[in-house]
Amino acid sequence: MQFAHDTEMALASAAALVNTQANGPRSVEELPDVAALDAFIDEWGWTGARTHDELELAHVRALRPRLREVWSRDKDGVVEVVNDLLARSHALPQLVKHDGWDYHLHATTSDAPLATRMAVEAAMALADVVRSDELERLRVCAADDCEDLLVDLSKNRSRRYCDAGCGNRVNVAAYRARRSADG
Ligand SMILES: [Zn+2]
Ligand SMILES: [Zn+2]
């Protein structure tokens, strides 16, 4: 595959974070409170320091529109966002081993605020995407009524729908439309 495994996970995690926002007509806020953030953190295997308060939640939520921008900008625009995220977070790359994972790159210490760590991890992964000239893999779901983001890591670059089941929904709707046209 194109990217290192931790880069792929970081990209998927960044897209999932943005997708917790109420993006389209069918979408609701999925991080309404700290408990929802806790569940997201568990699901995506985030470790490190937490404050479990409203401020932490607010910072994580505020990161989403910034990351979402990346999916809609050209290469220079993406570079601007990535460099800004790294600079604001005072990123300092270092190799670390933890929780059974072999050496991989972190660019913050594990006691940095959660939103900072999320911003930097996403930015480092996006830096890889820019360097390998693969921005076309960052896509918005092709369903008319869905604005969720996806990362197409497929070999033939064929993914068009998000993880929320839009592909099925669109296929079923097209099937029904064909049937009623035949009817
Ligand atoms: Zn790590
Ligand atoms: Zn979708």
What does this entry look like structurally?
With 183 residues, the chain is mainly alpha-helical. It has one domain (5-182): Jann2411-like domain (Jann2411-like fold). Helix content is 50%, strand content 9%. It contains six helices and four strands, in the order ααααββαββα. A two-stranded antiparallel ribbon has the order 1-2. β1 (94-98) and β2 form a beta hairpin. α3 (54-70) runs antiparallel to α4, α3 runs parallel beside α5 and α4 runs antiparallel to α5. 28% of the residues are buried. The mean pLDDT is 93. The site of one zinc ion has 8 residues, from loops. Residues 137-179 form the Zinc finger CGNR domain. Pfam families: ABATE, zf-CGNR. InterPro entries: ABATE, ABATE_dom_sf, Znf_CGNR. This is Zn-ribbon-like protein.
> What CATH first level would be assigned?
Mainly Alpha
> Can you tell me the residue ranges where pLDDT is under 50 for at least 5 consecutive residues?
none
CATH architecture: Orthogonal Bundle
Largest sheet properties: 2 strands, antiparallel
Small-molecule binders here are: zinc ion
Q: Which percent range fits the helix content?
A: 40-55%
User: What is the total tally of β strands?
Assistant: 4
- Envelope shape: globular
Strand content: 5-15%
Number of helices: 6
